[in-house]
Amino acid sequence: MRHFTDAEVAAALDWPGLIDALREGFRRGADSPPRPHYTVPVPDERDATLLLMPAWSPGRYIGLKTVTVFPDNGTRGLAAVGAHYLLIDARNGRIAASFDGGELTARRTAAASALASTCLSRADAGRLLVVGTGQLAPRLVHAHATVRPIRAVDVWGRDPEKAAALAARLSSAGLPARVAPDLEQAVRSADIVSCATLATEPLIHGDWLAPGTHLDLVGAFTPTMREADDVAVGRARVFVDTREGALSEAGEIVQAVARGVLDPQGIQGDLAGLVRGTAAGRRSADEITLFKSVGCSLEDLVAAELCFERSAHPAS
Q1: What is the percent of the chain where pLDDT is above 90?
Q2: Which of 96, 9, 104 has the alpha carbon at shortest distance from 297?
Q3: pTM of the predicted model, to two decimals?
Q4: Other Cβ atoms within 10 Å of 258 Cβ, number
Q5: Is the per-residue pLDDT at 316 higher than 50?
Q6: First to last CA, the chain
Q7: CATH topology for 2-104+298-312?
Q8: Spatial distance between the Cα atoms of 121 and 133, rounded to a whole number of angstroms
Q9: Which of 134, 140, 176, 299 lies most in the core, judged by the most C-beta atoms within 10 Å?
């Protein structure tokens, strides 16, 4: 059985290839049941979360990811999210490969946002604001820059030192990045706003969004979390990675529906509909679009398949 480290996953999953694989994966479809959430108490800290995420494609592969989220790990210098993945041959049940799940999760999440952006952001979107400084933030920047002509990147985080470090890291990679000292002003001037935080109260206010902005919300994965307020949801055409996941887990969506700000039928489409052409993406240069991602096990399966198949059949 082959095991893939995070470094090997990163080397195998280039952004264009992974984005294209996700497009084909959502077009093809797979069995991706709702993921169960379990609350795990942590003494003297916020509760942790355990998630189990299965998916399968008959005759191809079965995948299972375990995820833990420890919100206070940052105080220990550790990542908040931890994950492991098993890829199983769906023809005989044998384990084909295992993966360190951190890079797999981060890359497929960022690639899904970029895939949505190809349908929802303006084709000329050049200024990107990333909100958050965790492991997802640089990957979101690189993924968005793969599909849009990003010329400037603003970085905002609660910790200015972490924001400065991320901006320097992005700049050294060839992406002109700077720290955004004022979040409101950065949002008002952005073409794409991409959020990856553990916020439970809105950071992004809808009144700040300029016409034509695309809002990419990645961080809030439980009904009690949210990164944007009801005004943002109400002003935007709303899209999700999956309807079932968004309506049960996405804080911005669940809370907006509960307060009557959003009718579930008002969700304009999901990723499958966007790539299949059954849901219309951006319709004008001035409309505000919102993509809410909570993660989908189909994305993990596609990423693991791509990594494994590339290792078995390397390009000549």
Answers
A1: 88
A2: 104
A3: 0.92
A4: 10
A5: no
A6: 23
A7: ornithine cyclodeaminase, domain 1 (3.30.1780)
A8: 22
A9: 299
The answer to whether residue 114 scores a pLDDT higher than 90 is yes
Query: What local confidence, expressed as pLDDT, does residue 63 receive?
Result: 97
Domain boundaries along the sequence of the chain: 2-104+298-312, 110-295
**Quick one: tokens of 247?**
């309506």
| pLDDT tens string 232-264 | 999 999 999 999 999 998 999 999 999 999 999
pLDDT, position 312: 77
Of 95, 73, 94, nearest to 86 by C-alpha is: 95
Residue among 176, 158, 159 nearest 167 (CA): 176
User: Which amino acid, one-letter code, is at 74?
Assistant: G
Sheet containing 37-40, strands listed edge to edge, beginning at the edge strand earlier in sequence: 2-4, 95-100, 81-89, 61-69, 48-57, 37-40
The CATH architecture of the domain made up of 110-295 is 3-Layer(aba) Sandwich (3.40)
CA distance 137 to 127: 15
